[in-house]
Specification:
By secondary structure, this protein is mainly alpha-helical. The chain is 73% helix and 4% strand. It is elongated and about 65 Å long.
Length: 277
């Protein structure tokens, strides 16, 4: 019986993996570091606007800064678990998933408040979207339960060893909430400010916002930018999750990219709205 080849350099944790897996791990780690740099750059460039937000305290402003803190914490921990040995991979993996859960809740709360502001006189719509938001947070609970982290040999470096398929259910709920919120806001802005019956509203107005007043158009365009960026990224992450041939480490990388896009775009739309108003 042939003996396994000895590890030439046991101090390099990648040597304990198959070559293909080691390459995938390096790619996903580098993507995570790029995402970390991108969110730090976004936070630094938006610092003057965020200082102004501190002068207008409210529950929505609190949710904004909670989104900022939680998203950077999530991405920072996600980078840490890939570049530094830790004592307990499983525990840190659950911590990262929990921080991600809270980040999703605060991020979508910003969009929920946009819906509430537009439908300020409709309790039915407000309650409906609040229920959708609760569904988003509830479905996110599946994430800490679906991810299993393990150690690479005895090096202390971590790698995801298993991810349950039911975690995809959370993505479906997210897409429903994002799409419904965007369509509801667009429809209300157009029907409330354009002198055309709702049943005869042209699709070109709903898609472009042409003819809206400045404030309404600003709210419409910011929501449109947010939606397009988020839904495209989310769609790619969802497709990668359901295609078996895509390596799992790349699927994880798509999730990290999605976190960057959804949080930065939600915060950007919130800042732009405050500037317009």
């Amino acid at each position: 019986m042939s003996q396994p080849l000895p590890i030439i350099n046991p101090n390099v944790y990648l040597n304990y993996m198959e070559p293909d897996l080691a390459y995938q791990y390096e790619v996903s780690r580098n993507i995570c570091l790029v995402v970390l740099g991108a969110i730090l750059w976004d936070m630094l460039t938006s610092l003057p606007d965020e200082i102004q937000l501190l002068q207008r305290p409210s529950i929505t402003v609190f949710a904004y800064f909670a989104t900022r803190v939680l998203s950077i914490t999530y991405i920072l921990l996600d980078a840490l678990i890939r570049v530094h040995p830790v004592n307990n991979c499983s525990t840190l993996g659950h911590v990262i998933a929990t921080v991600g859960l809270l980040s999703v809740g605060s991020t979508y709360f910003l969009f929920l408040r946009r819906v509430h502001a537009v439908y300020w006189n409709s309790k039915t719509v407000q309650h409906t979207f609040t229920a959708l938001w609760i569904s988003c947070v509830g479905s996110t609970v599946l994430l800490p339960l679906s991810i299993v982290q393990g150690s690479i040999a005895n090096t202390g470096y971590c790698i995801t060893t298993e991810a349950k398929i039911y975690a995809i259910a959370a993505s479906v709920v997210y897409i429903i909430f994002e799409s419904s919120s965007y369509l509801a806001i667009s429809f209300r802005l157009c029907t409330a400010t354009v002198d055309i019956p709702a049943s005869k509203m042209p699709w070109r107005i709903l898609l472009s916002g042409r003819g809206l007043p400045i404030v309404s158009k600003g709210l419409f365009r910011n929501g449109q930018q947010y939606y397009l960026a988020v839904i495209v990224t989310h769609f790619l992450a969802f497709i990668s999750a359901v295609i078996p041939s895509i390596p799992f480490l790349y699927k994880e990388a798509f999730t990290t990219i999605y976190t960057l896009v959804v949080t930065t775009m939600a915060c950007r739309a919130f800042r732009k709205l405050h500037q317009v108003s």
